[in-house]
Design a protein that fits this description.
The protein is an alpha+beta fold. The protein has 13 helices and 23 strands. Strand 1 and strand 2 (39-42) form a beta hairpin. The model has no long low-confidence stretch (mean pLDDT 95).
Length: 440
């Protein structure tokens, strides 16, 4: 992608409305634009990051055996009345009526709809276990949206829903998502700690929030410091192994960890003083097991091996991609801008032409750009006629992991400079060597 042809509206000044680092940097880097209170457009640079976050989420959901579908954003109020949540959910739900005066709502979550899909199609235990998920925009009319897309009214969610014949089976499904979440956040460059959490309006009696520690976190969290060094399940994890996943769950719940709503001061005080960690945290995922709460209310039953009908046991599992993007920035930035983990960076490499219009610089940059693009790399080519300082500031601000800098003096010697955005380390090498480093 040539920067001269790209849409990336950079802001030179810090926006006054931005309270935290991620909101400020997302606006400055031209990733998002606010359309109204708590509602944002994702501009091309932000959309590239969001798509890469979603791809990792999708990959790990599929690996764990979940199956993707797509459900509508607008839902019939009848389903929510059937479950008993229509009046109980509160003002966060946006209620509307269609032209036939039928009550509708902009879905804040999809337990009712997916239960309706399940009950109309699945009749036998032989079709279980089943986990259905989608990645979709949702709306919750937050009383105080803030921090950009960290806490917005319209947001994207990956929500999955599991169905099992028994509680034991449902707990195994819960453990699948538990392990999948650990892997997902690790691939996004985050250390997420699962903490006992309140179930809120979703309901149920088993729940964990996945929290990353950050000074700008919305609430205080409490945990044992050893969580920071726990090993993440690797790509050899067998998601069909009941024992293996239970071992992972037991390890990651063996030490104290709780959100402020579930905090037990006496239990936390029992942790050795040097091992206690009290910090601010950002919730990036939430999983629930709620048994037969919805299946009983909505008649979701299957025939068991005994020939009798059984209400299915359910769980739901959410990750907020539009919240994850700012969370990654909160965890990885410096005074100059964003430092993206390679897995979600909008571009793998930015090629900076220090003197656009100089034949040697132009030819060198075109050569590198073509070679890396052909090799499947996402490359941003800064071919603008801006000053060197502006080009460097832009490259640092948007956080692309690698900068290849081609200036007249270096190019005359057949060389370019390669900068690592995270460490700031610079290395001069031949043009061929620079290409080979990223093509190999």
């Amino acid at each position: 992608m040539r920067l001269s042809r790209y849409f990336m509206p950079i802001l030179k000044e810090n926006p006054k409305e931005a309270e935290i680092v991620s909101h400020r940097l997302m606006l400055r880097a031209g990733m998002i634009r606010q359309q109204s209170q708590g509602i944002y457009s994702w501009l091309p640079l932000g959309k590239r990051v969001l798509d890469k976050v979603n791809a990792i989420i999708r990959d790990e959901q599929n690996r764990a055996g979940a199956i993707e579908l797509s459900m509508p954003t607008l839902q019939s109020a009848e389903l929510w009345q059937e479950s008993g949540r229509y009046d109980a959910y509160g003002k966060e739900m946006l209620r509307i009526k269609d032209r036939q005066d039928r009550p509708m709502l902009y879905g804040p979550t999809n337990e009712e709809m997916v239960t309706d899909i399940f009950r109309s199609s699945v009749k036998s235990y032989k079709d279980l276990p089943l986990n259905l998920y989608h990645i979709q925009l949702k709306f919750r009319d937050e009383i105080r949206p803030r921090f950009g897309t960290m806490r917005s009214r319209e947001f994207m969610m990956k929500d999955a829903y599991s169905f099992d014949l028994t509680r034991e089976g449902a707990e195994h499904s819960y453990n699948k998502m538990f392990a999948a979440y650990l892997r997902t956040f690790d691939r996004l460059g985050l250390r997420a700690i699962p903490m006992r959490a309140d179930t809120g309006p979703i309901g149920g009696n088993l729940s964990h929030e996945f929290i990353i520690l950050a000074d700008t976190g919305e609430s205080e969290v409490f945990c044992h410091k050893d969580f920071v060094d726990f090993d993440i399940p690797d790509d050899r994890t067998d998601f069909d192994s009941v024992e293996g996943l239970q071992t992972i769950f037991d390890k990651w719940t063996s030490l104290y960890a709780a959100t402020s709503e579930m905090h037990d001061e006496a239990a936390f005080s029992a942790v050795p003083e040097g091992d206690r960690l009290s910090a601010r945290g950002i919730e990036v995922g939430h999983i629930f097991y709620f048994g037969t709460k919805y299946s009983e209310a909505m008649g979701a039953k299957v025939q068991g091996p005994d020939g009798k009908d059984h209400f299915v046991h359910m769980g739901s599992y959410g990750i907020g991609p539009t919240r994850l993007v700012p969370a990654i920035i909160e965890a990885s930035h410096d005074d100059n801008g964003i430092i993206w983990p390679a897995s979600v960076a909008p571009f793998d490499v930015v090629v900076i032409n220090m003197k656009a219009g100089d034949q040697a610089c132009d030819d060198t940059c075109e050569l590198i750009y073509a070679a890396l693009t052909k090799a499947g790399k996402d490359v941003l080519y800064d071919d603008t006629d801006d000053r060197a300082g502006t080009k460097f500031a832009t490259a640092d601000l948007i956080g692309v992991p690698v900068q290849i800098i081609a200036g007249p003096r270096a190019v005359a010697n057949g060389e370019v400079e390669v900068k690592d955005r995270k460490t700031g380390a610079r290395e001069t090498m031949t043009i061929e060597a620079a290409i080979n480093r990223f093509v190999a």
